[in-house]
Automatic annotation (TrEMBL):
Function comment: Necessary for normal cell division and for the maintenance of normal septation.
Protein name, as recorded: Probable GTP-binding protein EngB
Lineage: Bacteria, Pseudomonadati, Pseudomonadota, Alphaproteobacteria, Sphingomonadales
Gene Ontology molecular function: any one: metal ion binding
An annotated GO cellular component: cytosol
Required cofactor names: Mg(2+)
Domain EngB-type G, chain residue ranges per copy: 43-220
Key words, A-Z: Cell cycle, Cell division, GTP-binding, Magnesium, Metal-binding, Nucleotide-binding, Septation
PANTHER family hit by this protein: ENGB-TYPE G DOMAIN-CONTAINING PROTEIN, MSS1/TRME-RELATED GTP-BINDING PROTEIN
Gene Ontology biological process terms, A to Z: division septum assembly
Record keyword Metal-binding present: yes
PROSITE patterns according to UniProt: G_ENGB
Organism of this sequence: Novosphingobium fuchskuhlense
Amino acid sequence: MSELTESEAAARAEMEERARRLFAGPITFLKSAPALKFLPDPTVPEIAFSGRSNVGKSSLLNALTGRNSLARTSVTPGRTQELNFFDVAEPVQMRLVDMPGYGFAKAPPSVTEQWKRLVRDFLRGRVVLKRTLLLIDARHGIKPVDEDMMQMLDEAAVGYRVVLTKADKIKASELAATVAATEVAARKRTAAYPQIHVTSSELKMGIPELRAAILEDAAI
């Protein structure tokens, strides 16, 4: 990747600071939607967070917003089975959507099918959905269930960014290999954004850059 020019670096720093201020402001839980009929009115841009169960979605949401308990974290995979909406700013400028985790082996088939229907219908029909963030555990890389989700996003024509989580949990050489493999996989996908975001919720690694990307995607 080529180095940024002075003006590009300044613009990026300005965007990161604007994103920091936005996420440091009021952010409130709006509602949970177990079915499409419970969705909030599509009045503002939305950014969705998707990933395997226990990938760290709640921790990443908390890190992005500088809160400790905006999104519930749990050691029990598969806990979130609804679309959870969070309003950002006052008046509301955008919404963050915490999607149900997927790939939990012990989930009953009925729960898995319900998840698929809810997510597929949401992705295909939500006109205000500007981007989905697909979280991948850096320790494991892209798994078959992640590929299934990527295919669903491709078919729904929903642009998505791949976000590696828990990057602090592996060696630098292993992380570099995971990033390279993920970049190769993303380039094969029609709806994937080419840039891979590398993050650690604990160390706040990559958080300012991801905040800025979300702001850019929401176009606010």
